[in-house]
Design brief:
The protein is of the alpha/beta class. It has 14 helices and twelve strands. Strands 1-2-3-4-5-6-7-8-9 form a nine-stranded mixed β-sheet. It has a three-stranded antiparallel β-sheet with strand order 10-11-12, with no helix packed on it. Helix 9 runs parallel beside helix 11 and helix 13 packs across helix 14. The protein starts with a helix and ends with a strand. Bound molecules: pyridoxal-5'-phosphate (PLP) and iron/sulfur cluster (SF4).
Length: about 350
């Protein structure tokens, strides 16, 4: 018998007919949808959070393809190959992306609970032009042969779309390796399919073990957070799984001070710790979502630091082929001399502390 979360997938909203149960399409939206070949869609649950009449609804814009996806002035071709270092000398199976010595990203599926229009893995996940071989056992074998890897980040697609049995297999295989100290999942399902956090999944994730599990979800707008989200997150936390957020800074969706602050406050209200805020990556066809590089740091300065709970503050980073690079506000260090270090706060007030020699 299919459970509630499988029903959500059976009724996946990826046709004009189904979409019309949730929103009134504009003629342009309907035209794009009927002509596009791209993969698109989301769960009925997430679709129900869209505004019926507003084409600029922040959830709607993440779900519905736009004509602007064909404009590509600033996106890099073959972005994912560059980004994930798939063309470097080290021999790795397709499932393993590596930028750091001690941790890797392990891609186990290309199926998602929403095909985000801003996805930086678009070439793989949404457009499907890039074909990879998702042989999980090859990936596990590679990790077993690399004792320097202590942290495995399981990603996709959305790894929580795997069955409980497949997830248990992955987790137990990784936990057998003495060098693995932590397992992370990157999954949007707590946001787009909170029904996935079932008692069965809790059993798989929840056993006490020396190797902890961390989940990072992706939530970009306060309207994505509901009572269902709160329950799913509480369930994860109560079985010992830590929950963080990796938001993407999206033009017209979360790049104004009020929305940005509300997003981060609301995440904490449902016990999700903001981890990263990602600059929208220069993947092809997503120019219309990208802000100037400075924007994220400005928002942290103007909306978060000093303005609300410190825990609400994510690290703003740009993910590149050589790793994630922080781009945080830099207004606070005014300068230093032999005696003093001069600092500024979010209100522009200045102070100094003694400058400590080596
Ligand atoms: C993002 C990423 C990681 C994890 O980075 P953290 O800063 O530790 O969260 C690891 N490997 C790859 C290839 C990544 O893209
Ligand atoms: S859930 Fe993640 S991998 Fe899937 S489309 Fe959205 S951003 Fe891309």
């Amino acid at each position: 018998m299919a459970g509630e979360w499988q029903d959500q997938l059976i009724n996946f909203v990826n046709s004009i007919e189904r979409l019309k149960q949730y929103i009134n399409l504009t003629p342009e939206e309907e035209k794009v949808l009927s002509e596009t070949k791209t993969t698109w869609g989301t769960t009925p649950y997430f679709a129900s959070l869209m505004d019926r009449d507003d084409p600029n609804c922040p959830i709607r814009r993440q779900v519905l393809p736009s004509l602007q996806e064909h404009e590509n002035r600033f996106g890099m071709q073959d972005y994912l190959l560059w980004k994930e270092n798939r063309t470097t000398e080290e021999q790795r199976p397709d499932t393993i992306a590596r930028q750091y010595r001690d941790r890797v990203a392990f891609t186990v599926t290309q199926t998602c609970g929403i095909y985000c229009r801003h996805c930086f893995r678009k070439e793989l996940v949404v457009d499907g032009d890039l074909k990879l071989d998702f042989n999980v056992d090859d990936g596990l074998q590679w990790i077993a042969e690399h004792p320097e890897v202590r942290d495995v980040l399981i990603t996709g697609g959305d790894p929580f779309l795997l069955s409980d049995e497949q997830l248990e297999y992955l987790i137990s295989k990784l936990r057998e390796l003495p060098h693995i100290e932590m397992i992370r999942f990157g999954t949007r399902l707590p946001i787009v399919l909170p029904q996935r956090i079932t008692p069965g999944l809790k059993k798989v994730l929840g056993k006490y073990h020396r190797v902890p599990i961390w989940v990072n979800t992706q939530c970009n707008h306060p309207n994505e957070i509901t009572e269902e989200t709160a329950k799913a997150v509480f369930d994860l936390l109560s079985c010992g799984v830590n929950v963080g957020n990796q938001a993407v800074l999206l033009k017209g969706i979360n790049d104004d001070v009020d929305t940005f602050r509300e997003l981060h406050q609301k995440l904490l209200r449902v016990r999700i710790k903001p981890y990263y805020l990602f600059y929208c990556e220069p993947a092809p066809g997503i120019d219309h979502f990208r802000t100037p590089v400075e924007k994220g740091a400005e928002l942290i300065r103007d909306a978060l630091r000093g303005h609300t709970t410190g825990l609400a503050q994510p690290m703003h980073v740009i993910a590149t082929n050589i790793g994630k690079i922080p781009l945080m506000p830099d207004y606070y260090i005014i300068g230093k001399d032999d005696e003093s270090y001069y600092l500024r706060n979010h209100k522009g007030q200045e102070t100094s502390i003694p400058n400590m020699p080596e």
